[in-house]
Amino acid sequence: MTASTASVIDADLAPDRTSAALVPTARRSEAATGGDLTESEAPVLKETVMSPVALPPGTIVEIRGPQSPGVHHPIERAVIIHSAMTWVVAYFPGDAGRLADPADPASIRVLSTGDVLAYRKFADCEPSWVIATWNHLTQSGPGLLQAPQAVLVWQHAAVLAAHQLETKATSVITRQQLESWAGRALTDQDLDRITEALPYSFVPEGIATIVGGLDRRDAKPAADLRGSMADGYDSDRVNRILGRVGKASGLRIVCVWDYHDAIGVGGDSDFYVIVDGRFHHCAGDLWRWLNTSPDDPDAPAVPGPPATWVGAPAEFGVSRLRYHDGAHNHAIHEDIDGSGAAE
User: Fold this and answer.
1) Which of 124, 131, 252, 278 is least enclosed, having the fewest CB within 10 Å?
2) pLDDT tens-place string over residues 292-317
3) d(CA 318, CA 284)
């Protein structure tokens, strides 16, 4: 860790975090348990302040869930694992009675920020809910989320929640681990300030820098795939390489071509990430990492965290696609007879 990074951590130990003013806030009644919240317990939205920046991983969002018998407009709670200005990718962990498996694709959703009723911090949630969902996540495997920054926030929150309930949460962070992250010995006063600052703000920039290193080594595609498409690709290479990328990252990456004819797929093509059945533009550095020669000085050394690959929703849906090879290739037009027909 560099001296500059350590100084950033030192500065961020202070509990007075001006960045917290940028995030939406709303008054609300606390639910008695970690379950669904009824409409009467929904936040007061009139005082919500919208954020001018994308919210960091580890932020809690609340949306209105589907109406069910006996429950009027339940509120669902999720944890942001990746965000942009107008949408977020969030994990819905469930509650103590219905904990969700992070390996279940249904627990990961892409949400429009317009559908979010309120944003919260872990510290504002019921300690029992924080601990129950954290313990379940550690048993299932935090790496399944591909979101180390959100996991770190969650872990800190679980430690504090455990102290609040005088119980023991899974994977309590030790003093030695904190000192390893900070790059220096920590005094008791430092620890008090960390305990106070972390759960009531978002991940300090210094720890975010450290977590960036975890991102790069967590479930990343094999290094031999770097530049593997620099000289072009066909449907076979797409299936072989994107199949390996998907297996390593847990995301479904596909290539959408302009057409499919008697010879095969062809025309313009681009990569997309499928989340909950919806196509999203491939963002981040993945495309350049695969398609740029390693000899190019501008070639990215790593593809970046998988969560950064999920871009904005595509302008088309699966109903517009006329061909699918059953693997990673799709085409917009079908032209088997050579007539040039678009359908």
Assistant:
1) 278
2) 999 999 999 989 888 889 889 999 88
3) 23
